[in-house]
């Protein structure tokens, strides 16, 4: 009888891809998955260890799995965290876990599973779909192009957990993208720690795709994905794009979306984190922060439909009221379409903890609230300009009240939604995964209301 493995996946889209790889390998070896603790022979918990709230959530999930099942293997970023004395953080809190690994460690996780739940004798590998096991809905998927990061931002400990940048071979990435599109995926979300740095670790080595040489670098990757997506009438969305000068080269590709309706979306997820030059220096952020406004204005000139999303930190150590006001002024001038903000949270092992003049928690939270109020004000203003226009929407959910979808400007789970009213005619009915045209009739906060 096949062993059953329960699975808990926490953290960012990059961690989700790690979970998909492990689940794919489990399926390939003949294991089954269980939807609850009681029906599982053991449980794998894929953790996040970036900020304190994520650590707490991961430790609580491990505790729940131990309480409900008793046999638990831990993987993910928190698995790489150590105590100050060098001992394992997770095992010091949950000593009964069977094994602990770091992130992107499919082989190590499988080895631990083999020890505690031997694999079935004759796995039916032919039953495994060519795209592997996905944890996302059938119509969208994440495509991870690299692991790790070469930057050493003072607030971040990801390089200590995931290592330096390691780019995947471009032929392998494009093959996976093609298989995903062929399986019915309508939107591919490109993720990494630093998408703009793709290929730098291997000096932009030449690979091959469709019998032709292609460089392992951002522009060549995006250009190829753009062509493949158009062939399959699908979207490609770029995440974690640092504002390096060479990003300018992909804006003309995004501008072409208006003529085709498919391909690389006019959408950039840019993790700016702050705007004031002094704060950016204390953060040790890559790229030239002082030129971010100039670059954003050039991007909007090259691609008027561009939607920019970004995340920021309020209350970073040493941040003065004047520096925070500078950030709010930047937000106003840049007109960031989709902005998120975290109140700074000290992360164990981050060098930012050693900086002078930490900002009191009450002020950090107050600044975060002010930031989000400003971000919502900008969002409402920009979305109101879409009222009366016809836009494309990818449907994520359908119920009696209509449908929930996303436009070009909406990444799943982190941006707004488009609420589509029930179809007035049978010919206008839609299903999950459909790409449809709708007319926007109103804007509410970060969301749009539309009709077919």
Automatic annotation (TrEMBL):
UniProt superkingdom: Bacteria
Residues of the Radical SAM core domain: 135-381
Positions with a binding annotation for [4Fe-4S] cluster 1: 12, 48, 77
Record flagged with keyword 4Fe-4S: yes
Assigned EC number: 2.8.4.4
Descriptive protein name: Ribosomal protein uS12 methylthiotransferase RimO
Chief location of this protein within or outside the cell: cytoplasm
Any Pfam family the entry gives: TRAM_2
GO cellular component, as recorded: cytosol; ribosome
Gene assigned in the entry: rimO
Subcellular location: Cytoplasm
PANTHER family for the chain: RIBOSOMAL PROTEIN S12 METHYLTHIOTRANSFERASE RIMO, RIBOSOMAL PROTEIN US12 METHYLTHIOTRANSFERASE RIMO
Cofactor: [4Fe-4S] cluster
Keywords (A to Z) from UniProt: 4Fe-4S, Cytoplasm, Iron, Iron-sulfur, Metal-binding, Ribonucleoprotein, Ribosomal protein, S-adenosyl-L-methionine, Transferase
Chain ranges of the TRAM domain: 384-452
Sequence ranges assigned to domain MTTase N-terminal in this UniProt record: 3-118
GO MF, one annotated term: protein methylthiotransferase activity
Sites where the protein binds [4Fe-4S] cluster 2: 149, 153, 156
Cofactor note as given: Binds 2 [4Fe-4S] clusters. One cluster is coordinated with 3 cysteines and an exchangeable S-adenosyl-L-methionine.
